[in-house]
Amino acid sequence: MIDALRYEYVRLRTIGSTYWLIGSALVFQLVFAVLIALSLASSSTFGGGDETFEILATIGGSTGAPLLMAYIVGLLGVFSTGHEYRHGMIRATLTAIPHRTHVFVAKVVSIAVLAALTSVMCVLIALLAIAMFGLDMPSGSAFVEVSAGIVLFVTLFALSGLAFAAILRNQTAAVAVLMLVPSLFEFIIQSVVVLIKTNSSDPQGEGGITVILRYLPYDAGSQMFVQSSVSGFVQRAIGAEPFGAVGGGVVMGVFVALLLGGAYALFVRRDA
Amino acid sequence: MALIEARSLGKTFGAHRAVDDLSFTVRPGSVTGFLGPNGSGKSTTMRLMLGLDRGEGITTFDGVPFTGLDHPMRHVGALLEAKPFHPTRKARNHLRMLAAPNGIDDRRVDEVIDMVGLTGVRGGRPGKFSLGMGQRLGIAAALLGDPHTLILDEPSNGLDPQGITWLRNLLKHLAQQGRSVFVSSHLLQEMALLADELVVIGRGRMLANGPVHDFISHSSLGSVTVRSPDLGALAPALEAIGASVAAADGGIVVRGVTAEQVGDAAHAAGLRLHQLATHEATLEEAFLEATGLSEEFRGTHRPSEGGQR
């Protein structure tokens, strides 16, 4: 296992995409955190430190916008297995480390650690922006809750990218799926459910088809850091109460675990 | 030094039986050539040997399957792809990455880079390498762990004539050191110079396995040309020992027996011989004869079928 981790460590250190993806995530975070902090510093109506931190740490993601860092770091997950198939590396990899379980687990561990570290750095950048502009610091509990939510979501998001690439064995398709499922497919499903529900005999009643909305994995996972969003208002208006941070995290965690399980099963059974 | 033993290898893709009950042995101290027409299952067999493809049978290296080897690159070096590397990862880093899990230090990385002649481009990105340079990098990866066994799929692809000569000398040298070398190639003339033993397959099945000389000498295309003033009596004497005889330009061409057998038969019958010339089939002729009915992909244009008009 240590051998496989050593391989992943050198693999990640010696490929340019590791640096430009992490660099991009951090630069975006810094630029947008500074811009938002600048705007908040001149606003007299904005809320306290908790809300400020939520907005800055997620670059607006706490209001329902896509969590940009997750999409960027997610590509690291896709490339982790996608490069193996796109460039015919998989056979060289498996002749260096024939234990497929070790190879797969090492990829999962290395991407999880990298995604978590990157998201922690993004959170620290938010704190830096708060300090730079003299804004109110968050309370300890809010800091821990939001930070944990962000780190968990980004990590699970990146692992789902790894799993998509391992299942599809096609890097381009995996990138497309990772980008489109959270941002488009889930939105389409939400729209269709809302349309059906609002045209039903009981547009505000609980249960029924709206239950689906609680189990959309990425939307559910975002409950770990979203405080209030348009999507949430709409869902509640049609009788769908989203899971909270814990429930949403569990839904996303189970989804990613199932994806990884499927990817692993295929990885060990398929021809390289 | 490892004895490679492949037993009952088999692989099916859908309805297509790509490899069918292949068993062979590669002995230390020899270069074993792996021959077969396109699509005959050579690459699939090599992948099966290394556990990369899921199929039937088992291959052991001194009794241990590849997947059971600790630090496998120290035991078996393999080249299976033409360009098995990320195009933007520097050549040296590519090797360092493969070396890391096998406990191989950077000094050995630099040694193999030097050995394959890529020192000048060690910091280069392989995406810009020619096919031949890519092959050299692949060969460097195979040599990284100083393994006792090499499994190389078409290693001379893309190499220039100097490169092919270099590779031949290298593989012969490694075999002379007692290593087992199993190598596939389409370059039959090259294989004739390189290999000690052959495994010849067609449509996934074994066609021949043994020393190169035996494979060639068993070809029916080998013949003995005989000139004699006693041909009328000699031909029946040769047919009596199992030879086939055909008239040719003032003499006869005899197949199925050796020149020594022809001489002995003539002597026993009290017949005179004026010329006894052996024509040994080339490896290419013997290969084409052995695989003639085993081509997976057969073109419709055959010169012997009226191509020249």
UniProtKB/TrEMBL annotation, chain A:
Report whether Transmembrane shows up as a keyword of the record: yes
Residue spans crossing the bilayer: 20-43, 55-79, 108-134, 146-168, 175-196, 243-267
Q: What is this protein called?
A: ABC transporter permease
| Alphabetically ordered keywords of this record | Membrane, Transmembrane, Transmembrane helix
Can you name the source organism?
Answer: Aeromicrobium endophyticum
Q: Is the keyword Transmembrane helix assigned to this protein?
A: yes
From TrEMBL, chain B:
Coiled coil start-end = none
Task: Please state every residue range assigned to the domain named ABC transporter.
Answer: 4-228
Q: Which InterPro entries match?
A: AAA+_ATPase, ABC_transporter-like_ATP-bd, P-loop_NTPase
The GO molecular function terms of this record are: ATP binding; ATP hydrolysis activity
Check the record and name the SUPFAM superfamilies matching this protein.
P-loop containing nucleoside triphosphate hydrolases
Q: Does the keyword Nucleotide-binding apply?
A: yes
The membrane spanning regions, by residue number, are none
Q: Mind telling me which SMART domains this protein's record contains?
A: AAA (SM00382)
Keywords (A to Z) from UniProt: ATP-binding, Nucleotide-binding, Transport
User: Does Signal appear among the keywords?
Assistant: no
Q: Which family does it belong to?
A: Belongs to the ABC transporter superfamily.
Quote the protein name from its UniProt record.
Answer: ATP-binding cassette domain-containing protein
Query: From which organism does this entry originate?
Result: Aeromicrobium endophyticum
